[in-house]
Specification:
The complex is a heterodimer of chains A (365) and B (870). Chain A contains 14 helices and nine strands. Chain A is of the alpha+beta class. Chain A folds into two domains: 94 residues; 237 residues, BirA Bifunctional Protein, domain 2 (2-Layer Sandwich). Chain A has a seven-stranded mixed sheet, sandwiched between helices. Chain B has a seven-stranded mixed sheet. In chain B, strands 11, 13, 14, 21, 22 and 23 form a six-stranded mixed sheet that branches. In chain B, helix 6 crosses helix 7. The chains are: A alpha+beta (365), B alpha+beta (870). The interface between A and B is large, with 99 and 104 residues. The structure holds zinc ion. Zinc ion binds next to loops of chain A. The site of zinc ion has 8 residues of chain A, from loops.
Chain lengths: 365, 870
């Protein structure tokens, strides 16, 4: 290219156009470096033009100098833009080169490597999970949660619950006794009902006062040979309401409200006369079979209903035992198995699995 | 209790379907466990006579049988696998289309080329007996029973041949408070009331019976010495008996009700018990060994062989009444029966019995329950007496017995002694009258019944009602003061309902007949605000923290085997179960460790031993009181405990300490000191105790000693198991910081300083930290141990048990590193700390920092014979 001062503007334009083409064709950093050398190096037309402006008039020199600087800046800009593009391409290429197999991570055993293994969660026992859900349902219905000891005296487990010694109803609960005190005086509670007595006693003694709206979850013991439906160590939840004007209708309504809240709106409850020494009237409560939703299946022996627990109005004799005036106060109680709820909900074939602590079982929940 | 539909129909005109009846019974609380239709289970099963038995070519075990199934000359060909019969035998044949009790439907099919037109049945296949060893033989070739009269003609219906009537048997589970429902009349009465059907009870008509001239007392004397346990005793003598087989109708009813027919006299006794709920006992008067009965309390040395052939011994112990039984003795005072439970073998009725002394009595329910439990003997009689029989229904039962036996024995022959002996004690329960307020019933049930409604519900069940003026009535004192005066009913409770003794019991009867499902559903008017206690919330949080750390919750049994506690170094006696199911479950756990180790072993032995488990549960210790036997209620010390067992690869003491630190941070626990030292359960040099400022032990942390792992069957020597146990009640109770408040975050830059001290081995890092914290004061924002260095040769030469384990101090998991050229004496190690200083309100100056560092260094030097690492 020869330098002709007369069409300097035109030449600048074509220089830029040429540079655009060359720079965009540079496909590597090396090529780009060479292209830049060609365009702006010592031997480049631009440099030649620069060298020549020294011969010009000061006024013209200033004007053309500014023009050439603009061209230089323009080309610089194009080069650095292309450099960024190439860099981005190159780094993407590099990053694409070794695709990490994330499915491996998914498939690693949790304890295979410490780094991956430490990032696993533990599992709350399904009984705990069930208990929490049940507690939350009842808390939402206005109950508080109370607990009591697992070792009780005969008084709390039987006598205060209207079962004096040799009461035939005691046969309903096979009891583990402890080698403490007089024979058969201290035992492992067969139900959570002793907590009712503790609660009412402390209410009467003024610690908490009446009314009582409480649920009582906890571990219970029955001397039954283990089978698919029974284990000697199990969990129950019990409810107690003591207030003025509490009716059997309130009991039926509370059971129904709980049933639909916990099991879902398609599951309902019904009460059937039954017998417990500590309640009168007493009832067994059944819920719509959760498997067939009432249509009838093997689990519910085609009745559409499954038995969940027992309930009733607190027997005035129980109120007498704890010193609550049954002419002023009335109440209801209900109870059922937490494990049984879990068994129904997750269709656990054999309750004995609950005590084995097989991680294949525990990790499912 | 098995209740026959046909028997119910003796008392009420029932036309409903069996399913509808079952539904009604359910709704009355007489829950039907199963419905069994008799006489229908053998549809298509006929009597057949074996004509010919032929082998089948190529078949070893089966043969071809030709039978006469009543189709005239046409023989039926069947294939059979049994060989216990011969030509001429009478056998049951299930024809194609028959349905067997087990649900099997019979079809004609070809077996080894032979068409089998049905199946010859075993007793088990017909659900008649458990015998599955061969075909049921109804009559043997040439036997006397093979007559038309017995119904064993070929082709006749098997049900007819066996004399089984079409009937429905409801198996009802009767609750412990309903002695009346342990009888056919009781069930019928409840049903009739609910279905609004007429109920026809049995009315004794003594006049129709044949009485002799001799008074009962002249034939047999009766003395009741134990009027506390036996409050009414009736007796009479029946003479002129020929004990025989009972008629079919009676045998069938007993069989359907689940009782084995024995002979006419015993069958009648059982029939009366099932029908009326009144157990009774016939003695062979000639075998009584003393013509009379004495009812008395047992004394040591008494014994009797009961009807079941077992020798029973009685007596009683130092506990007085509680260990004594009510015995029936002959006139020579020798036991002949256990009152209300079972008679003696020597006086039982046999085919040669000529005269019978009949007993029907009322026994104290608790006494029967006690004896039954003590002897481990539950009989049809004892389950009725212990619930409470009708003390005023005995006469009817005596009459029913005499009447039925007379019918069977023959009216002309049967002679009943004159003058029934009837000894009643003043303790005998009398019919109860209750004052029942209609308002109170409604306010208990949530109903709006009127006294008329209540009457309609109660009267059909045998209750009598009378309206009483509430004003001026003495029973009015029962009425809630200030309540609106409403109708008061005087309710007479029938004597067969001993369970009804207070107003609430009457309410239940009303509700039962009204129908539980007809009671409205409401909710308590003023529920409180539900909540968890702070403890309960924190315990949930504790579980969440542990689950977040990758630990899974286990649930182990509370029971431990003998020796389990000793294996983990807990040598003090544990609470013992008096009546364990198995010996391996005879102690209450003092620690969660054995249970969790067993859970670990369970998983290890299934090649899934990489587990981390925790449990929160109760642990038990003997009462603090040494002389437990002298205290009325020496309850065990029961506390809630946390156990964390860590058995992932690389887990160990350090993992356990990290988990403790996480818990400590989660609950803002302050003032708990980790003290290195030997802990019984733990590795001799990798254990520590967590002590509170009050010097109470919160728990222990470390690595479980391999000898303990081995004793639980965990023999893999490379497995290290970390262990942390805490007293949850202490952790979330007294130690839990409830007044925790947030700390402001400074916006000024920090000054970070590293200091490495060489300190003697016996100084725990936590002590150095405390010194630094104290010296640095408020401007210290954080302090971390970042390096522990001990000279290599020291580590190599030191024996395991004597070498202190540094990582139990406040920062764990740091591997010793550093420059080996450093000159650190044996018996010392270098602890490097990272201190970050920052002020809330300004940038610290160099002078500030210099002063702080100087203070820190001097304090550590002075307190711990330390020096700075060179
Ligand atoms: Zn179902």
């Amino acid at each position: 290219m020869t330098f002709d001062i007369s069409n300097i503007e035109q030449q600048s334009q074509s220089l830029i156009q040429e540079a655009e083409g060359l720079i965009s064709q540079a496909n590597s950093m090396d090529e780009l470096k060479q292209t830049k050398q060609d365009l702006m190096g010592d031997k480049s037309p631009l440099s030649q033009m620069h060298r020549k402006i020294g011969t010009l008039e000061p006024e013209q020199r200033k004007q053309i100098g500014r023009l050439l600087n603009e061209v230089k800046e323009r080309i610089d800009g194009l080069v650095s833009k292309r450099r960024e593009e190439l860099e981005a391409q190159e780094s993407l290429g590099q990053r694409q080169e070794s695709q990490m197999d994330l499915t491996e991570v998914l498939l690693f055993s949790t304890s295979a490597t410490a780094a991956l293994g430490y990032l696993t969660r533990g599992h709350m026992h399904l009984v705990t999970q069930t208990q929490i859900e049940l507690e939350d349902t009842f808390v939402g219905m206005g109950f508080f949660v109370a607990e009591g000891p697992e070792v009780e005296t005969d008084w709390y487990n039987f006598e205060a619950l209207n079962m004096p010694p040799d009461h035939p109803a005691r046969g309903m609960w096979d009891t583990f006794y402890l080698n403490l005190g007089a024979p058969e005086s201290i035992l492992l509670r067969t139900h959570t009902s002793p907590v009712q007595i503790h609660l009412m006693e402390s209410a009467v003694q003024g610690e908490d006062g009446l009314p009582i709206y409480a649920v009582m979850p906890g571990r219970c013991y029955r001397r039954d040979t283990p089978d698919a439906r029974h284990i000697p160590v199990f969990h129950q939840i019990e409810g107690l309401v003591v207030d003025k004007g509490i009716t059997f209708a309130d009991l039926a309504g509370t059971i129904e409200a709980f049933t639909t809240a916990y099991f879902g709106s398609s599951i309902h409850s019904r009460l059937r006369p039954s017998y417990f020494p500590f309640t009168e009237p007493s009832a067994e409560f059944e819920i719509t079979c959760t498997i067939c939703e009432g249509v009838g299946c093997r689990t519910c022996s085609n009745t559409g209903w499954i038995e969940l627990g027992g309930c009733g109005m607190v027997n005035p004799r129980v109120f007498d035992a704890v010193g609550i005036d049954s002419l002023v106060w009335s109440g209801f109680a209900f109870g059922f198995g937490i494990d049984r709820c879990a068994q129904m909900r997750y269709q656990i074939a054999d309750m004995r699995q609950m005590l084995e602590n097989d991680v294949r079982f525990l990790y499912q929940f | 209790m098995r209740v026959l539909l046909s028997w119910l129909k003796d008392f009420i005109p029932l036309e409903l379907s069996a399913d509808k009846i079952a539904e009604t019974l359910d709704d009355l609380g007489l829950v039907v466990e199963s419905i069994c239709r008799t006489g229908e289970e053998f549809q298509g099963v006929v009597v057949a006579k074996v004509l010919d038995i032929q082998p089948i070519l190529g078949a070893k075990n089966i043969q071809k049988v030709l039978v006469d199934a009543g189709d005239g000359a046409k023989q039926v060909e069947v294939v059979c696998g049994a060989h216990n019969f011969a030509e001429g035998d009478i056998v049951p044949l299930a024809k194609p289309g028959a349905k067997l009790p087990g649900g099997i439907e019979i079809q004609a099919r070809k077996v080894m080329g032979v068409l089998s037109n049905g199946m010859l049945c075993s007793a088990k296949e017909l659900a008649l007996a458990d015998d599955a060893s061969g075909i049921m033989i109804l009559g043997e070739a040439g036997g006397v029973s093979q007559t038309a009269a017995t119904g064993l003609e070929p082709g006749s219906d098997l049900s007819l041949a066996l004399g089984i009537q079409k009937d429905v048997v409801f198996d009802i589970s009767v609750e412990a408070n309903r002695p009346d429902a342990m009888s056919i009349v009781g069930v019928a009465r409840d049903l009739a009331a609910r279905l609004k059907l007429p109920f026809t009870p049995l009315e004794p008509t003594w006049d129709s019976l044949g009485f002799g001239d001799v008074s009962t007392a002249d034939l047999a004397s009766v003395t009741v010495e134990d009027e506390q346990y036996c409050q009414r005793f009736c007796a009479l003598v029946i003479q002129g008996l020929t004990v025989s087989t009972s008629p079919d109708w009676l045998r069938n009813r007993l069989l359907s009700a689940g009782m084995r027919p024995i002979n006419s006299c015993v069958d009648v006794s059982n029939y009366v018990m099932l029908e009326l709920g009144q157990p009774n006992h016939p003695y062979d008067l000639d075998r009584l060994g003393g013509a009379g009965l004495i009812v008395r309390r047992s004394i040591p040395g008494d014994s009797l062989v009961t009807l079941d052939g077992q020798r029973r011994t009685f007596g009683g112990d130092a506990r007085g009444d509680a260990g004594q039984d009510c015995l029936i003795c002959n006139a020579n005072n020798e036991p002949v029966g256990i009152g209300g439970i079972m008679g003696g073998a020597d006086t039982e009725i046999t085919s040669s019995t000529k005269q019978v002394l009949l007993e029907a009595a009322y026994f104290l329910p608790a006494a029967i329950a006690g004896t039954s439990r003590r002897l481990g003997l539950r009989t049809e009689a004892s389950v009725r007496f212990e619930r409470g029989c009708d003390p005023w229904g005995i006469d009817t039962a005596m009459w029913r017995f005499c009447s039925l036996l007379t019918d069977i024995n023959g009216a002309g022959k049967t002679v009943i002694s004159k003058d029934l002996i009837d000894i009643k004690d003043k303790l005998l329960p009398k019919p109860v009258k209750l004052s029942v307020k209609v308002d109170k019933i409604n306010s208990l049930l949530g109903t709006a019944l009127e006294s008329k409604d209540i009457g309609e519900l109660l009267k059909p069940m045998g209750f009598f009602l009378k309206t009483v003026e509430s004003r001026g009535d003495e029973d009015a004192s029962h009425i809630e003061a200030g309540a609106e005066s409403g109708n008061v009913l005087e309710v007479s409770v029938p004597s067969f309902r001993p369970d009804v003794s207070i107003q609430a019991d009457v309410a239940e009867e009303i509700a039962r007949q009204f129908g539980y499902s007809n009671i409205p559903r409401t909710r308590p008017a003023r529920p409180l605000i539900g909540r968890l206690t702070p403890y309960q919330r924190d315990r949930r949080k504790l579980k969440e923290v542990l689950v977040g750390l990758g630990i899974t919750e286990a649930w182990t049994t509370t029971f431990l085997a003998p020796g389990d506690h000793e294996k983990i170094g807990l040598r003090e006696k544990a609470v013992e179960v008096a009546n364990p199911l198995i010996k391996e479950e005879s102690f209450l756990r003092k620690s969660l460790l054995p249970g969790l180790l067993k859970a670990l072993l369970y998983n290890v032995s299934r090649q899934q031993g990489d587990v981390r488990l925790f449990e929160i549960g109760h642990v038990f210790d003997l009462p603090d009181n040494g002389a437990v036997r002298d205290v009325p209620f020496p309850l065990p010390v029961e506390r809630e405990s946390l156990g964390v067992l860590l058995a992932w690869p690389d887990d160990g003491a350090d993992t356990a300490v990290r988990i403790w630190r996480t818990i400590q941070e989660a609950f803002h626990i302050e003032g708990v000191v980790l003290k290195n030292g030997q802990v019984p359960t733990l590795h001799p040099s990798r254990g520590a105790t967590l002590m509170t400022h009050a010097e109470e032990e919160l728990g222990v942390v470390g690595e479980i000693d391999s000898t303990i792992l081995k004793s639980f069957g965990l023999v893999d020597s490379s497995r290290k198991v970390g262990w942390l146990t805490l007293d949850v009640e202490m952790l979330l109770g007294s130690l839990r910081q409830t007044n925790f408040v947030s700390r402001s975050i400074s916006r000024f830059p920090s000054h970070d300083i590293d200091l490495a001290f060489v300190v003697p081995d016996e100084v725990p890092a936590s002590a150095v930290k405390s010194t630094l914290v104290e010296a640095a004061g408020e401007l210290l924002e954080s302090i971390d141990l970042f390096d522990v260095y001990k000279r290599e040769d020291n580590i190599d030469s030191g024996s395991r048990s004597s070498k202190p384990e540094y990582f139990f101090d406040n920062y764990s998991g740091v591997q010793p590193t550093g420059n080996p050229k450093d000159n650190i004496d044996s018996g010392s190690r270098s602890l490097a700390w990272h201190l970050r200083f920052r002020a809330i309100d300004r940038t610290l100056t160099d002078e500030d920092i210099e002063g702080l560092i100087k203070g820190c260094i001097e304090k550590v030097f002075k307190s711990h014979s330390a020096r700075l690492r060179g």
